[in-house]
Design a protein that fits this description.
CATH superfamily: Glutaredoxin
Strand content: 25-35%
Number of strands: 9
Order of helices and strands: EEEHHEHEHEEEEH
CATH architecture: 3-Layer(aba) Sandwich
Radius of gyration: 14 Å
CATH topology: Glutaredoxin
Helix content: 25-40%
Oligomer: single chain
Number of domains: 1
Structural class: alpha/beta
Largest sheet: 5 strands, mixed
Shape: globular
Length: 155
């Protein structure tokens, strides 16, 4: 898995509205890219709701949050509308970005899924922290606190 100090890979992925989103869109801003297993499942829903609830805090801190899964644009659109998410969800249907990052897969009841993993990317596009096997409950608070500490250390 790519670790802190590595550049985050360039990507070009559609969001829930089909708009192409690229790493360069976030230049000069802190970015959280969180990877989750599947739309409209309990943990993924809880995580999306938590990031939506904390969006104003992330915005105030100059941090953008995007979610990524292997689900397609239509699935993301339905998921964001069902729960009124205000964060973008990007569709990595060929799993190219997840494979490039080295995110591991797990199996549950005979189904493979990508592990819940989050990356903190600094304004220059460098990975500053990786969180593996994330517990979706309270993760948004951990990220806000950790990124604030990173900013203070860099100041």
């Amino acid at each position: 898995m790519l670790s802190a100090g590595n550049p985050f890979p360039n990507f070009s992925l559609p969001n829930q509205d089909g708009k192409i989103t690229k790493l360069s869109d976030f230049a000069g801003r802190w970015l959280v890219v969180y990877f989750y297993p599947k739309d409209d499942t309990p943990g993924c829903t809880a995580q999306g709701k938590a990031f939506t609830a904390a969006k104003a805090d992330f915005d105030a801190a100059g941090i953008t949050v995007v979610g990524v899964s292997a689900d397609d644009v239509t699935s993301h659109k339905n998921f964001t509308h069902k729960f009124a998410f205000t964060i973008d969800l990007l569709s990595d249907t060929d799993s190219k970005l997840m494979k490039t990052l080295g995110i591991s897969q797990a199996e549950w009841k005979g189904m493979k899924f990508w592990e819940r993993t989050s990356f903190v990317v600094d304004p220059k596009g460098i990975i500053r922290k990786v969180y593996e096997k994330v517990n979706p409950e309270g993760h948004e608070k951990v990220l806000l606190d950790d990124i604030q500490a990173m900013k203070e250390k860099a100041a």
